[in-house]
Amino acid sequence: MNRNAPPASDTIVAPATPPGEGGVGIVRLSGSRAEALLATAFRGRIVPAAMVSHHLYHGRLCRGDGTPIDEVLAVIMRAPHSYTGEDVVEVHCHGGSQLLRSTLDLFLAEGARLANPGEFTQRAFLNGRLDLAQAEAVAALIGARSEQAARAALGQLEGHLSRQLHHFSSELRELLLLLEAHIDFPDDDLGALDRQAVSRRAEAVRAAMADLMRTFDSGRALREGVSVLILGRPNVGKSSLLNALLGEARAIVTEIPGTTRDTVEEHLVLGGLPLRLIDTAGVRDTTDPIEQEGVRRAREKASAADLVLLVVDGSHSLTVEDHLAIALAPPERTILVRNKSDLPSLADTCCRQFLSQVAVSVRQGTGLADLQAAIIAHFHGANKSEAADGVVLTERRHRDALGGSMLALDRFLAAQLAGDPYECLAFELREALAVLGQITGETTPDDILEQIFSRFCIGK
Ligand SMILES: Nc1nc2c(ncn2[C@@H]2O[C@H](COP(=O)(O)OP(=O)(O)OP(=O)(O)O)[C@@H](O)[C@H]2O)c(=O)[nH]1
Ligand SMILES: [Mg+2]
To answer: Which range of residues forms the domain containing residue 58?
Structure first.
């Protein structure tokens, strides 16, 4: 599968709206027979052949024997001005699962094929409507869990990342052409190659790539969400804190130590960042096998979490169990939360250096705003970097390819410094270009393309 492949000729069909009941349900067709398929079933004042592209027409959808299925609106988006670049038809039915199934069956019986997940977007890619980074942005946009995440995905869909990458590759391509000219015509009157000027240009590209690379942490946080783990000994108020941050009584809270026995996970958006908030079983030495497993899970999650909220009871001196929990918390990723500040507080006896310390009373709701601010500050402070014009790198696949390209550039610069022959320099430049091209899909292997599109939902 690549851009030079012949266009897929069969016409595909899939529901474009999610299953279940709703106001409207849309069935979408794409391919050379899309309009003909609509013509077999649509009965209205205007026949499909006379429909203006991108206009909605009212009519009925009928089976071959004339029995009506639904009253619908139909639209034809003729090639090449459609999502896939092929003729696309959308039939807007009433949103009932039986209606959609009947509509789908009708088109399948007439010779359409059920689309694979992501096949519409895959065709858009193959027809050059989108590059691969933009196609991936479609999935990211649909899956975005916060406004900021959606904005980043939309920027990528609109080609911000692609333009930046294009700038890198056109610079590298120019350098490559220059080298190749000196390889092919060494005795020509091209003059000697200004090696230093070549190095400077390559270094500038390398630096801009590094800027883009630095945006990955914040990009990943937007794309995948960050995990925030609530850790501490039993009864310090971890579940109470989870509930307070969520604004709902999600986890059970009692005065009995050992109330939470498993991890409880909930999604939350804070300062535009999608968070996974995880409450854990209180850390202690216990003989109860269920609780032991809960503590084991808490320990495991503490090492993987992006941020740990280590909760202690500020009205109590630290216990052996507190110290067990403190030992589990990675100091550079931990905020110490001194809860129960409504009670007389004890002097701080915690010895480890954490990111910050916040006193709260979950019971009275005091200090929670400070805690939220500290959480946001941690993520924004660490990930403030945005490359030029707000482009962020959100996909691991993109990071790996960009990293590969930077390594090839490093080798190029080293070879340049060592005065290696032009052939060696050109080899590294070609490598840097090839790896970079994987992001936008110019050089992406077929199996990776298949993998990327198979992650999409049906009908997209
Ligand atoms: N005074 C006071 N009590 C609190 C505060 N926050 C929680 N508590 C009480 O502390 C007790 C334990 O609260 P939980 O939220 O269940 O504590 P936990 O850390 O989840 O406990 P385990 O699940 O057993 O590990 C409950 O009785 C809460 O009402 C607070 O800010 N002030
Ligand atoms: Mg609990």
So the answer is: 12-131
**Long-range contact list for 286-291, CB < 8 A, 24+ apart?**
286/258, 288/258, 290/261, 291/258, 291/261
**Residue 98 token pair:** 């039986």
User: What distance in angstroms lies between residue 8's CA and the mean position of ligand 2's atoms?
Assistant: 55
- Which DSSP category does 376 fall into? H
Q: What is the mean pLDDT of the chain?
A: 89
Q: What is the pLDDT of residue 349?
A: 60
If you measure from the C-alpha of residue 13 to the centroid of ligand 2, how many angstroms do you get, rounded to a whole number?
A: 49
Q: How far apart are CA 299 and CA 330, in angstroms?
A: 11
Asked if residue 233 and residue 366 are part of one domain, the reply reads yes
In terms of domains, do 361 and 393 share one? no
Best residue among 253, 255, 292 to mutate for probing ligand 1's pocket (most ligand atoms within 8 Å of CB) is: 253
Identify whether residues 229 and 210 lie together within a single domain. no
Number of CB atoms found within 10 A of residue 122's CB:
25
Q: Which residue has the higher pLDDT, 47 or 296?
A: 47
Is residue 6 a part of any domain in this protein? Answer: no
User: How many Å apart are CA 362 and CA 239, to the nearest integer?
Assistant: 10
How far is the C-alpha of 351 from the C-alpha of 349, rounded, in Å? 6
Query: Is the separation of the CB atoms in 18 and 96 below 8 Å?
Result: no
pLDDT of residue 232: 94
Give yes or no for residue 361 CB within 6 A of ligand 1. yes
* Pair (142, 125) in one structural domain: no
Query: Alpha-carbon Rg of the chain, whole angstroms?
Result: 29
CATH number of the domain within which 267 lies: 3.40.50.300
In this structure, of 45-49, 126-130, 295-299, 440-444, the range with the lowest mean pLDDT score is: 295-299
Asked whether the whole model's pTM tops 0.90, one would answer no
pLDDT in tens, 291-342: 778 778 888 888 889 999 999 999 998 998 998 899 889 988 999 999 999 9
34 and 114 together in one domain: yes
The count of domains in the chain is 3
Query: How is 157-168 classified by DSSP, letter by letter?
Result: HTTHHHHHHHHH
Asked if residue 454 lies in contact with residue 214, where contact means CB atoms within 8 angstroms, the answer is no
| Ligand nearest, relative to CA of residue 256 | 1
Percent of the chain topping pLDDT 70: 94
Q: Are residues 119 and 153 both part of a single domain? A: no
According to the model, what pLDDT value does residue 380 have? 74
User: Omega before 80 cis (within 30°)?
Assistant: yes
Could you tell me if residue 226 is inside a domain? yes
What is the distance in A from the centroid of ligand 1 to the CA of 242? Answer: 11
Q: Within a 10 A sphere around the Cβ of 191, how many other Cβ atoms? A: 7
Q: How many residues does the chain have?
A: 460
- pLDDT higher than 60, residue 123: yes
